[in-house]
Amino acid sequence: AVVSTQSTGKTKEDLAKLQDKLNEVLADYGDVVPRREYERLEALHTTNSESLERYKTDYNSLMKEHQTLLEQHKVMSAEREEFSNELGLMKRSATPRPEWDQAIPYIEGGEAAWKEMSTGKSSNQLVGILIGSLIGKEHTGPVEEFFEGEGTEPPIPKYLRWTGKVRNRNLSKADTAQLIQDIWNQKIVSDAEKEHGTDLADFLHSYLQQKYQEDLLVVEWGYNIHHACGLYRTEPHIGLFYETLTGDADDSVYSALFTQHDALLTHLYQASLKYDSEGSLLVKNIPPLLQTFFPLKETGDIDELMGAFTDTDRVNVKALFNTDTDGNISDFLKTLYSQFYKERSQYVKDIHSALVSICSNDKKEYNIQDLCKAFEITDPEKSSKDVNKLLAKVFNLNLEQLSSVGPVDRELLLQRLKSSGLIRSGPKGV
Q: Does residue 170 contact residue 143 with C-beta atoms inside 8 Å?
């Protein structure tokens, strides 16, 4: 028993030493991995290091390429800006190639005749052929490439003062319509800032100077606008600009028509919101709207305006007052122009008749007082203030100067009234 007890004690001591030793080993080698695991991790680390170096190389290469692209982008942006400026200059100084097939409907003989006439011809020659066909004259030669300058002395308008040749740009009707609309818009803004409006010919010169700055371009565009307006003057909106430019019409005509058309557009557009859909009207709803807006027009005049809508049931209101891509205005707007001129002519005749009744048929001159009385008879609803403004405009005077105007030649007076923006304010007096 004693031996057994001693053996047990010895065993416990050995076990305690071994436990201490084990704890020491665990403390010293707890973070150590097996060689096999170490070798596996070392191999993986080597692979990842190589990949990292390769990625670094690729990254540096991409950064260099990126920097090169940035430099190329900067160069190309500068070139693009330069080309954009050149394009803007070309747009101002060049015209697009015409779509010659649009001429076929206006050529006698149709497509076959046009192909026969146009084959092998240059654009200049085609313009000449087309003009000749439209005006019924033999004109197969080329259109002149240049205008001859008219000189530099008054009374030649400033925008035409030049000696030598001026390039013919052969402006299209669409280009002409767009140009004159911009000129009118700019003139309205300019005149609003002044007590008296500027003559259109003088304004055109200043407009071109501000837009093109170079004398040659100013004159070139002046000659081309003048020529194109004369060429397309059968279109009412272009013809009015041409007549105003040449002094055959007062710019109060455009002012009167612009005011009338803008008010009518607003009237019809507001009605579209009430009756139909926004911006469009059923044709059947238009006659009473026109009669309300034009209380002085007779039924036949309203019917004439409605003749523009024979082939449709619904119209776009704004399209009635815009120009199309070819520079044409709507038939409705053409009729409004025509009726304005007819009504103005009748108005002047009524004023003349009133003047004869006030004075005598033999009288060759009229004074301002005679005119005011004639307006009271012809258009009693027109206020004296509006009459004075109209007369001041007709005689190109200030309101203060109006009372000092002496007798005016009858024919000169009637001619100025016929070229003014005269619109009746109410029914004729009895």
A: yes
Could you tell me what percent of the chain has a pLDDT over 70?
88
From residue 280, alpha-carbon distances to 193, 274, 293 in Å are 35, 11, 17
Structure tokens belonging to residue 199: 């003559």
**Does residue 155 have a cis peptide bond before it, meaning omega lies within 30 degrees of 0?**
yes
3-class DSSP assignment, residue 136: coil
Per the CB < 8 A criterion, the answer to whether 278 and 419 are in contact is no
Asked whether residue 237 carries a pLDDT value surpassing 90, the answer given is: yes
Q: Quick one: pLDDT at residue 287?
A: 92
CB-CB contact of 276 with 285 (8 Å) = yes
Element (H, E) at 165: strand 165-167
Q: Look up residue 348 and give its two tokens.
A: 């002047």
Nearest-angstrom CA–CA distance, 88 and 90: 5
Greatest Cα-to-Cα distance within the chain, rounded to the nearest angstrom:
174
pTM of the model: 0.65
Q: How far apart (Å, rounded) are the C-alpha atoms in residues 403 and 183?
A: 34
DSSP H or E segment with residue 273? helix 251-275
Query: Residue 314: in which H helix or E strand, if any?
Result: strand 314-316
| Residue 309 near residue 286, CB atoms below 8 Å | yes
pLDDT digits (tens, 9 = 90+) for 255-280: 889 999 999 999 999 888 887 677 88
